[in-house]
Amino acid sequence: MAPALPDGDAAPDDGALPASVLAGAERRAFGVYLHVPFCTVRCGYCDFNTYTATELGGGASQSSYASTALAEIDLAGRVLAAAGLPARPVSTVFVGGGTPTVLPVDDLARLLGGVRDTWGLALDVEVTTEANPDSVTPESLAALAAAGFTRVSFGMQSAVPHVLATLDRTHDPRRIPDVVRWARDAGLAVSLDLIYGTPGESLDDWRASVETALATGVDHVSAYALVVEEGTRMAVQVRRGDLPPTDPDDQAAKYELADDLLAAAGLGWYEVSNWARTPADACRHNLAYWRGDDWWGIGPGAHSHVGGVRWWNVKQPRAYADRLARGVSPAAGRETVDGESAALERLMLGVRMAEGLPIADLPADARREVAGLVADGLVDGRAALARAAAGSSTPGGRIVLTRRGRLLADAVVRTLAA
To answer: So what's the architecture of 19-291 in CATH?
Structure first.
């Protein structure tokens, strides 16, 4: 079951944006997220807004989805133009899900073509699609590259069969080296997504998964701690005692092991859950989220953000298609993030990145907490004590988390936000 949409104000039927979104727009990059809400099988831990074929109602078929999403792309182009925003070519496109590659490559190419026709693409555009290892072939990956995709992120999750079975993942882990090779042969950059802390996963199991990922030679790895979300099949299994609950200490040990192995292989962390071989290998689309740039989210349940205004679409594919067919924005609600809320969000996101957050961006009360965080080993003292440029009257240091600080990032935020 996908989580409920947040509370917020009513969104206008025409999707119109307030004049406030113009402030600083020329300094913000613009990206597009395309949500494909379909999977062949629902994994027991997943609470994303996704649907299998048997869960879809009328008017929400996979075969018609690209045309429906193109209608929102057209709406988005009109709304942004009407708001008076400067023309900005799209710098990143991310196709997520669900499993985007359950759609035919021609449909994915049509969606990217709609983005290109509406806004144009930057010369160095990053275009990523998520994929399951069992949802691609050498031919489909080559066709994605020919259509303009530059990057693929495979949901590997684990290399250990019993861990994949607990997660309800259906792919054969022996296929991972093959799909990575096929993608690279097609000219695509490759990322592998891993999950640690699955019930029944040993430390040796996790080591095997990370080492298997590294053996493929990929330049980007994401590793996320399993969260057992309410409403999922796994939550029911844990509640009944069929599976043990996740253990924070176990997950911390696995994070530290992954960080050691990835660093030894030449991949450095650039965000708490993401490692890349070089800065150029980082996922620029996700960096845009963490830096507060603008993006429009296309699809059921997708979220958007432009100039401090955030909104979210209706979740059900049938309701989404119906609203667009009637010429109505699919937005279910929206909010304006400003003042203290904006400062807290900037803090929460900024401290998660290896580039850190300027101490000068913190209010005076929060700056006084930095020394204690350094003393507790949560914040890098050298980064925090860096001098300002000559003649500057503001602090020059940055909040950069140590590895212990990464494990306790929420505690660092609470301290600085108190």
So the answer is: Alpha-Beta Barrel (3.20)
